[in-house]
Amino acid sequence: MTKIPNIGKPATNALNSIGVTTLEQVSNLEKTTLRKMHGVGPKAISILEQSLTDHNLFFQDHSSSNVRPKTDFAVICSLNCDNAPKRRLIRDYLLAAASGNQPLLESVLSDSLRWIIPGKSPLEGKEAFIAAVVKEQTELSTLEIQSILTHGKEGSAHGILTTKTGEKIYFSDIIRFKSNQKDAPISEITSFVIQ
């Protein structure tokens, strides 16, 4: 493993906050992701790019495939293979919920959505869910999706949201789709959150 070169304390702290400490880990990121991270400026990216090149490594480039919705915060996520429509659907749901993207939420959720947060009364309906998500919106620095799994009518995802103030929010969502079809909307979400 190759240590990250000297890119300045703010940029180093930003990468450390998402667990990135080696050039090999940097090579799993996109430049556009780094540009959105607070503390990582053009100079740090230039130094990282040169160091990657020196070690025959490169930034990820998903500009032509695996198109994902645009956000104002850094998104760290890998779908590994791009032949899993429900995994993309879960990813898009997570991005839409984190950014308050109402049109995207409308497109991935069933009208009869049921949202379950253990210890609270379930929330019924897509519109009520979207209103709750928009009301609880917070400014994010990073969304790190650590895993997305799907099988048939079920799926799950977990990861870490980092706010602009540095607060970490750990989440896990268990998802049920309306049917087994590859483009079936999400009909139920059970959310576990640790702040």
Notable characteristics:
195 residues; alpha/beta; Nuclear Transport Factor 2, Chain: A; 7-stranded mixed beta sheet; 7 helices; 7 strands; elongated
Please render the helix and strand layout as text.
Layout: H1 9-17, H2 23-26, H3 31-36, H4 42-54, E1 74-76, H5 85-99, H6 102-108, E2 109-116, E3 123-124, H7 126-135, E4 140-151, E5 154-163, E6 168-177, E7 186-194
Parallel strand pairs: 1-4, 2-7
Antiparallel strand pairs: 2-3, 4-5, 5-6, 6-7
Summarize this entry quickly.
This is DNA-binding protein. This protein is about 35% helix and about 30% strand.
Give the proportion of residues in helices: 25-40%
Largest sheet: 7 strands, mixed
Per DSSP E runs of 2 or more residues, the count of β-strands stands at 7
Number of helices: 7
User: From N to C, what is the helix and strand string?
Assistant: HHHHEHHEEHEEEE
Euclidean distance between termini CA atoms: 32 Å
CATH architecture of the largest domain: Roll
Please give the radius of gyration in angstroms: 18 Å
Strand arrangement within the widest β-sheet reads 1-4-5-6-7-2-3
CATH class annotation of the largest domain: Alpha Beta
| Parts with pLDDT < 50 across at least 5 consecutive residues | none
Overall residue-averaged pLDDT value:
89
How many structural domains in the coordinates?
A: 2
Beta-strand portion reads 25-35%
Might you state the CATH topology name of the largest domain?
A: Nuclear Transport Factor 2, Chain: A
Given helix and strand content, the structural type is alpha/beta
Shape: elongated
InterPro entries: NTF2-like_dom_sf
GO molecular function: DNA binding
Protein name: DNA-binding protein
Organism: Enterococcus silesiacus
